[in-house]
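User: Before I run my own analysis I want an independent prediction to cross-check against. Here's the chain; please return only the structure tokens and, at the end, one sentence I can use as a sanity check.
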Amino acid sequence: MDDQNDIFHGQAAFVSLFAAIYASLCCGARAERVALATCCMDNIKAVMQFAVMPHDHASHDDPHALLPSDPALRVKALETLLTRKGLIDPAALDEIIDTYENRIGPRNGAHVVAKAWMDDDFRTALLKDATPVVSELGYYGRQGEHMVAVENTDTLHNMVVCTLCSCYPWPLLGIPPGWYKSDAYRARAVREPRKVLSEFGVELPKNTAVRVWDSTAEVRYLVIPQRPAGTEGMTEDALMDLVTRDSMIGTGLAVQP
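Assistant: Structure tokens:
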């Protein structure tokens, strides 16, 4: 009976989670999208008791590795169970994950970057203290409480990593990509950043220094990529389309129009 109750509550949590995410996709206000997504995470943590966010644990003895963590196995088991019962569609889950990883999340950060490119006063305030500036735009919540913006220039290229776990500014960039959480990236980004950048297709001039920022539970970073040449007359929305997720991590550059 206890097992059946656990399964029932697990199903309820999972269905509730994606119902809330779906609602957030239909919501126009950025702040409401972030709040709903945060509510989803809190809901699944409370009911299923395994959604531990990066750096919310007391020890780093079990870092991200090639084998899935115990919570990941539980999520997969629950997903398989609900799929077999016809309660969820794996294709729909993949679409939701792709939306948060590559569209909604990065678009928030792209909005901040485009605004910084167009408004010098905003850019100055952002570089001085990013947290209240992005909060005013509606981008706040767990994994984004303490933000620092760093700017790329002709002589300095910034790159972000979390060497201990996978700390990442969720409200601005969405779900962290798999490679960001990998052991290889976390180790090599610090040891050989130029080589890692070259593997992402980023070749920097020799006179451009590379600075690697280590994201932690206390501080998350947003890279402000250089504005592409020839974009002076473009609108904010058009500039947003040039800003990629990787360019805001530092493993990519803004797209040339």
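Sanity check: The beta strands are 147-151, 156-161, 209-214, 220-224.
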